[in-house]
Amino acid sequence: MTIRSIRPLAPQQCPQCAGKQTFVITREKIECQRCGYIVRDEKHQPVPPNPRPQRAPHDRTQYKISYRITHRGGVESYVEAAFTTAMDHAKRQDWDGAIKHLRRCIDFQSDFSDAHLWLSRLLEDPVERRDHITSVLAHEPTHGEALRELMIIDGEISGGGEFNEFTMPETRDAGGAVATVIKNARCPRCGSSTLSDDDAGGVLLCDTCGYREDKGKHVGAMSLLSAALIKQRSQPVRWQVGERYLKCGSCGSSRTIAARQMVETCPFCGSKNVIEQDALETLRQPDGIVPFALSRKNALENLENELSGFGEKLKGLFNNHKVKRVEIEGLFLPFWTFDVILDLLNTIIDTSMFESSRRERNFNVYQTETIPEAANNVLIPGFKYPPRALIDRLGKYSLSRVVGYDPRALAQHSAEIYTLPFDQAAMEAHEQVANQVRQKYHANVSCMVKHMTFRLLLLPVWTITIFEQDHQVRPGLINGQTGRVALGRPQRLGR
Ligand SMILES: [Zn+2]
Ligand SMILES: [Zn+2]
Ligand SMILES: [Zn+2]
């Protein structure tokens, strides 16, 4: 790829040593790894431009006055009239007058969401503002503007500026290796990097000193999808990271690693470095992890059983020495998991109406029935490789075994960083649920998502590579929890 339509942060070529893609991005500077040149021009800002939100003074003039009522189900005309009067006052920046009439609206109808939203915008006291937002969200948990307002009050995003549902951050390429914040997976007692959790346990073990620690911290709560989307869209830039720069936490040696690599074994000192964040803050830490419930030995036994019952070509592969070698490695793969609550709108044509008197035209022959539905633990792979076809054949994972994420749980195995962002995964989850629902009802129903939450989980697989005698390589996976085997097609070794 030579054409780049996406503006990179680091220059592609070093102006001093002419090295290509030699820059490392840290929080402080962008520096050439080869010659030490530091970028200082405006276009390539050294400081990552996703700033911490600042608590700006509350500016009531920032809101665009609108008389439109968005409250689901509508309101009575006298409530609407009071709301219109309130907006008239707000238009003249008579805040006290507006607040008075908004309070009247609430007296008439306590759950009127537009009035609560505007009270939260026009009042000064953050506690009161928060209370009114909570009232909106109680009535409508995914109310976009209310969520955004709440996040501004809580200092999670900065307010001001144009914002609507179409606002999108600019996508930019990092253009260089992004420095990482790492955690060394070490034993808390003796400090050696010999922690393991290999064999089917919820226990972290140190092979050097015998230290034992029960894993099984609680998993964090699910994140609200709409809030996460608002937060993401409030950022000026969405970064694309090609590679990262890692400095070993033990010996200080440094190198560049692929963006999808989450754990690195230092080639010089053997310690495990687990990536927690990078200088552009592009990473979300996993919320939970499902530990291996199947040892390497058991996984290999399952594989052998599978191969022996696999038909002519593979029959007795092991015994007849057709298999030269099998490589097996434990790997945690990132999955987004979604819980979805939705309403199905099913439109029924009431045929009995056609038979009744045609003069009565006010009859509605179309009736809509609303069916509540829910789908939990919808898993969407956050990675491209291993391919979906193979992943789908691994069967289910029981998510009741999930525990809180701890980087030290990766001491023994490798792990991948997701490449599919949560918002794209959410669209996939939505589609998957809609399809399931349509199959279930055999009808062309439409789905209205009412509530969607998600989290990021690491799930265990044993990856296998079977080297067969005729220069063929067969990839495979074993579910690290259930032991189910999925074998891919053999491929000829390159060259
Ligand atoms: Zn240079
Ligand atoms: Zn130890
Ligand atoms: Zn090292």
Query: Gap between N and C termini, in Å?
Result: 25 Å
Number of strands: 22
Tally of structural domains:
3
Alpha-beta classification: alpha+beta
CA-atom Rg in angstroms: 28 Å
Low-pLDDT residue intervals, each spanning 5 or more residues: none
Kindly state the percentage of residues in helix: 10-25%
Any ligands, ions or cofactors bound here, and which?
zinc ion
Number of H- or I-type helical stretches: 10
Principal-axis shape equals globular
Beta content comes to 25-35%
Biggest sheet statistics = 10 strands, mixed
Rounded average pLDDT: 84
Report on the structure:
The protein is α+β, with helices and mostly antiparallel strands and 495 residues long. The protein has three domains: 60-153, Alpha Horseshoe (Serine Threonine Protein Phosphatase 5, Tetratricopeptide repeat), CATH 1.25.40.10; 177-281, no CATH class; 296-492, no CATH class. The chain has ten helices and 22 strands. The strands form four sheets. Strands 8, 14, 15, 16, 17, 18, 19, 20, 21 and 22 form a ten-stranded mixed sheet that branches. Strands 1, 2, 4, 10, 11, 12 and 13 form a seven-stranded mixed sheet that branches. Strands 5-6-7 form a three-stranded antiparallel sheet, with no helix packed on it. Strand 20 (472-479) and strand 21 (485-487) form a beta hairpin. Helix 5 crosses helix 6 (225-233). The two termini are 25 Å apart. The mean pLDDT is 84.
List keywords for this structure.
495 residues; alpha+beta; Serine Threonine Protein Phosphatase 5, Tetratricopeptide repeat; 3 domains; ten-stranded mixed β-sheet; seven-stranded mixed β-sheet; 10 helices; 28% strand; globular; binds zinc ion
